[in-house]
Amino acid sequence: MITEERVEKAIRYMAETDENYARAFILYNDAIKHEGVVISQSFMHAKKLFDTVAEANAAAKLSKEYTAWEKDKTDKGFDYMTLKAKRDTEKLIWETWRTEQANLRNT
Fold this sequence. Notes:
With about 110 residues, the protein is an all-alpha fold. It has 5 helices and no strands. The two termini are about 15 Å apart.
C-alpha cells in the first residue's frame, strides 16, 4: 500500500516542478527548431570552401557550430526527459494510490 505521506510527496513534487517542466519542454523544442538556422549558416560557410553540395553539407554537419548545437540539443533533451520521467513516476504513484483508495471504499 502507498502511504498518504508518499502521495503527498508525489503531489508536492508535481506542483513544485510545473514551471521547470514547462521550461525544459520549451528549451528542448526551441533547440530542435533551431537546427535549420545552424545547418544553414554552417552550410553557407562550408559552401565557400568545398566544390560540391555534398561536401559542403557533410562539412556543415561536422562544423563547430553544428556539433555545439547537437550537444546543446542533447543536453536539453536529457533534462526534459529526466524531468518528464520523474513526473510520470510520481503521477503513477498518485494514480495507484487513488485506485487503492477506491478499492478500499468498495470493500
